[in-house]
Design a protein that fits this description.
Chains A, B: It comes from Neorhizobium galegae bv. orientalis str. HAMBI 540. Two copies of one chain form a homodimer. Chain A has 295 residues and is of the alpha/beta class. The first copy, chain A, is built from eleven helices and nine strands. Chain A is globular, with a radius of gyration of 21 Å.
Chain lengths: 295, 295
């Protein structure tokens, strides 16, 4: 019987699967619900199986996960216990759990050397040099993730309090943020004390909007963020050199380039494919040779 | 019988009381345990009474709190529920709960106009202009308190991760911090996720130590912190003008001046007295006139 390969792109809101043959040709796709292996590993497992079965169904092939090889790109993959738990319960013949960044890299730059910067609520950079992967930054907004949506939103709240206290001039951005909190700084403090990255990040679109209108505070915040990204991309270049593809991914990827240093902006290119395509390509790459041997 | 006045300086680790006569002459002092009205109001009440009674004992006067007027400077005074709870249960004839900053201001600059910057784990600025009080900044380390011990420590951890990722050069400060976390960035992330201001602040002495040795990262962090303080002091000057006493208080007060802008450094002076002295002076000032009327 034929060998099949599954790629999984799973995260906090959905789980997507792609089914491919040994040549990497995609035969079908499936989508199910959340697959956060940290917060709810059993539901994640259920949704991984469901998305995989739907991919078989779309391909009109009788699903047999026990003969299928899979690569799963899952957020939270750096927490050993969760990975072990899920790994031991996956129904595939063989499988590998990697980070969501690794499948995004594969999708964006294919098999060549190069790098991606994922610039969303968090930021992380992944480079491939002479076939070896390197991860840069991405340690969370409290002490890392400079330029991320979380950090930009946090800076915007800080800016609004500086304006409230007449430490910085009041601008449209600060006014808009204060208004959201009923012009009550205590409400900003209460919010910030418990805010998760996504909570801060929800204030970030305003920063880009006001910057576009020339708001001095918004522009200063984005320059601070962009400087953080520029420095990280310099470190990436220290690994890969300045050849090879460099892609920005994530929610802020379309918004940031105009604020970045010319040396980086000039090198940016569109990703070749998405993370799900990267996952299934990795499955074929990782397990395809073994399948050949068995054939 | 004589009128007595009590000042209380209470916080998370201790409660200090000073007893004065109507002329503000201090007759006795007492000290007891923690008086955090937010986390444990009943213990705070117990320690307020205990410290007050000890002050009477030191003065060899039979304690009668029900005929004594008090001003209490208490951390956490901005949370209304806690204040109402404690206020309703205080044994004094009359009393006022104010912030720890207000008694520190009174102690530091006396009855004149002027300002203080409290530069410790947090930062807050309190100014008195034409008799009116103004508070600037001090909204907590997540979105305020620039230059505070918490922020400096947090920046030091961030710096060590930037050095770990080759985004910034490795310096002695970053090496020392990484070594404290077994050179494991995950441990820094875990620490930072739950760190309270004091947890970050514990890394701040190292920043000053390494800056003194010429460490480029440490100096950059202190310049960032000092810029935040300079800007806040400019805002304070916007309220008070540049006349009147300006004092820095708090744990970092002796360390910061050399990093501040000359325009502020040149104006700094030593506080006239401590916060406890400020509290008892406020008690006499607030309630002394009434006592005169009753006499």
């Amino acid at each position: 019987m034929a060998d099949y390969f599954i790629g999984i792109d799973g995260g906090g809101t959905s789980c997507r699967a792609a089914l491919a043959d040994k040549n990497g040709r995609i035969l079908g796709r499936g989508k199910s619900g959340a697959s956060n292996i940290l917060t709810d590993p059993d539901t994640a497992l259920k949704h991984i199986v469901e998305a995989s079965s739907l991919a078989f169904a779309e391909a009109r092939i009788e699903p047999d996960l026990s003969t299928t090889s899979a690569v799963l790109g899952l957020a939270g993959n750096n927490v050993g216990d969760a990975v072990s738990y899920v790994q031991a319960r996956l129904p595939f013949r063989q499988s590998d759990i990697v980070s969501d960044g690794v499948i995004a890299l594969q999708g964006a730059i294919g098999d060549e050397d190069g790098a991606i910067g994922i610039v969303g609520t968090g930021t992380v950079y992944i480079a491939r040099h002479q076939g070896r992967l390197h991860s840069v930054a991405g340690w969370g907004f409290q002490v890392s993730d400079l330029g991320s949506g979380a950090r930009l939103g946090q800076l915007a709240l800080q800016e609004s309090l500086l304006a409230y206290d007449n430490i910085h001039p009041m601008t449209g951005l600060s006014k808009a943020i204060l208004a959201e909190f009923d012009n009550n700084p205590e409400k900003i403090v209460d919010f910030a004390r418990l805010a998760k990255p996504g909570d801060f990040g929800r204030h970030t679109p305003k920063v880009f909007d006001f910057a576009r209108q020339g708001d001095a505070a918004a522009i200063r915040i984005l320059k601070t963020g962009a400087a953080g990204i520029d420095e990280a991309l310099d470190a990436v270049n220290g690994i890969t050199g300045t050849k090879g593809r460099l892609c920005l991914l994530g929610g802020l990827a379309p918004l940031y380039p105009e604020y970045l240093a010319e040396r980086h902006r000039a090198r940016l290119s569109e990703p070749l494919a998405d993370a799900l395509t990267g996952a299934v390509a990795l499955a074929v790459k990782t397990y395809g040779a073994q399948a050949e041997l068995r054939a």
